[in-house]
Amino acid sequence: MSRVFRDLLKKVGSGSHTSTDLSREEAAIATRMMLKEEATPVQIGAFMIAHRIKRPTPVELAGMLDCYDSLGPQLALITADYPVTIFNSPYDGRTRTAPVSPITALTLAAAGAPAILHGGDRMPTKLGLPLIEVWQGLGLAWERLTLTQVQQVLETTGLGFVYLPHHFPTAQAMVPYRDQIGKRPPFATVELMWSPYPSSAHNSHLVSGFVHPPTEDRTQITFQLRQTPFFTTVKGLEGSCDLARSRTAIIGLGQLRNGELNFERLLLHPRDYGFEGADPDLLSLPELTDTFQVILQGKPGPLMTSVVWNAGFYLWRCGATPTIEAGFKQAENLLQAGAVRAKLAEVRGAIADCAPQTDLLTAH
């Protein structure tokens, strides 16, 4: 048993009237001791439940993210015309709506705006469709690559995916606890804010999905504490970065200027741009893959409309187009001209060209 960890656990687990918040340094220490499994399984499970009940503060989340930065994989900076967009979505996947972020990311990459996603396999408690299975359906075997190879693919194609089981095994070791405690721990919130690409770099654009407004508030303050220069918060489908078409998109636009956070609220109404409609239902993976192939051929359809709605917004947000309307037009043109399909083939080829390696580069 770790007595150091026990003291930290006592702070967050003493009840609603006597519990106290951790400092940023203490939160980083507690996170490190859990990820390195220096705390016992009982201590780790108790901390996860207690911290969930108490609710992590932005200061604590900043400390947890500090630890993720020190222990987790970090891709190197790349040169690009536009900021590298990192899409942060819940790791436990989708159960109701079809994810369009992989095609959105491919569209951004086809426009010269790099994109990175990250996640793992099917994960408790939701056990929804994870992004890795969508990529596999499209023929992209990210799970085969080392972190060095992901870096190589990102540099040559503008697209990357960090796969938790191989690239961040210390965080992957926490996944069984989610099943055992039956609830999302604060780590699930950290995953919505963490970036495997240097988030303090001025050529990064961090996108964080959320469901509940308090999560967005904590995200905004946490990013300010960590001096995250350029970020977007999205009340997306199932907490993802996917903009809904069935309701107004609630978006936060954050940017640091001279150390001060400029945060603006954007309410994006689909009907104002001709995109109003039902959100796409989740299909079986074979059906979803077939639908994506139709989209990549530039053919119209409900899912195509959702892709243009999303890709157009993010093209504008990362500066690839001067207006949102121009973003929608460029996204549609890239899909219809076959540029996104060609980008998928390019990424598939880049992954295939990576020599098989068994020595996985997982962390610093």
TrEMBL record:
Is Cell membrane included in the keywords of this UniProt record?
Answer: no
Give the superkingdom in one word: Bacteria
Biological process according to GO: L-tryptophan biosynthetic process
Cellular component, GO annotation: cytosol
Cross-referenced InterPro entries, in alphabetical order? Answer: Anthranilate_Pribosyl_Tfrase (IPR005940), Glycosyl_Trfase_fam3 (IPR000312), Glycosyl_Trfase_fam3_N_dom (IPR017459), Glycosyl_Trfase_fam3_N_dom_sf (IPR036320), Nuc_phospho_transferase (IPR035902)
Q: Where is the Glycosyl transferase family domain?
A: 97-339
Ranges where the Glycosyl transferase family 3 N-terminal domain occurs: 6-67
Recorded GO MF terms: anthranilate phosphoribosyltransferase activity
Which keywords does UniProt give here? Amino-acid biosynthesis, Aromatic amino acid biosynthesis, Glycosyltransferase, Transferase
Annotated Pfam families: Glycos_trans_3N (PF02885), Glycos_transf_3 (PF00591)
Name listed for the protein in its UniProt record = Anthranilate phosphoribosyltransferase family protein
Please give the organism.
Vasconcelosia minhoensis LEGE 07310
